[in-house]
Amino acid sequence: MNRQFFEATDLDRDALLRKTENWQQILLAEESLRILICHAGDPLFAWPEDIDAHELVVMGAPAVPHLDVDLNGGHWIYLGRDANGPVIAVDIAPVVSDRDDAVRRLGGGFGDMRTRMAALSSDEAALAAQARAIFNWHRGHQFCGACGHANKIVEAGYRLHCTNPDCGKSHFPRTDPAVIMLIHHQDHVLLARSPQFLPGTVSVLAGFVEPGETLEQAVAREVYEEVGVKIKRAQYVASQPWPFPGSLMLGFISEAETTELSPDNEEIEYAMWVHRDEVAGLPEKGINLPRPISIARFLLENWCAGRI
Fold this sequence. Notes:
Radius of gyration: 22 Å
CATH architecture of the largest domain: Alpha-Beta Complex
CATH class of the largest domain: Alpha Beta
CATH topology of the largest domain: Nucleoside Triphosphate Pyrophosphohydrolase
Number of helices: 7
Distance between the termini: 9 Å
Structural class: alpha+beta
CATH superfamily of the largest domain: Nucleoside Triphosphate Pyrophosphohydrolase
Number of strands: 14
Oligomer: single chain
Order of helices and strands: HHEEEEEHHHEEEEEEHEEEH
Strand content: 25-35%
Shape: globular
């Protein structure tokens, strides 16, 4: 089965260098360094959003002094090192809070990552998604949850340290586990529509894992809560990092024990059983399938092909 979109492969996260105080200076001295510029987590593209071109802006250290933005005041994180060298991401929102102003200074555009990143290579999208997830975590945890004092970004962005000397609590990146499951019965797959989907789109079911339950229990609970179907024990298939804002999608497959559908009418507008041979033809009927970059599409395509 293929690599998941947003999945980083052959990336050395270089944890030892992260813990070095002068990691930034060390990497800025490397000729192969690449820098991603972001604003509130979204990466800079070479072209505005209204132009159908989606080239990610990647620059070297020599370009930094010539920018109309002082990157030193931004938030810096070290993404890791791949075959082409190290990669740093810088979020300039602390320096230029207004995104339109940032665009005027830098050119290009930031835009909607869900739309624009689908046009990137898998390697570029994985790096941009990693940066977005970390920067989103920074924005949501500016203050210590234990004492309320400001947090300081340390270890190349992968640890927040409370600045209160009487507290000094460390905080680490947050990843929310979510299960996503393909439910099938006698060559039929269960597809449903959530109000949050794009118009006309259906997908497999999904939901967040609750404290105290296993992944398999979460699958069974979500399926029953959303459509009233009982299932056999779920089997794990694959996972996908999902930076909207910072989830890990854990993909499962399971056979249904019951088939009567009772959508909850809150998270699910309607649900239906679709024969394996009819899934590919749904768009011709005005029913859209999940985005190609999603693990939902991955599960559907591999089930229809008989690979899972």
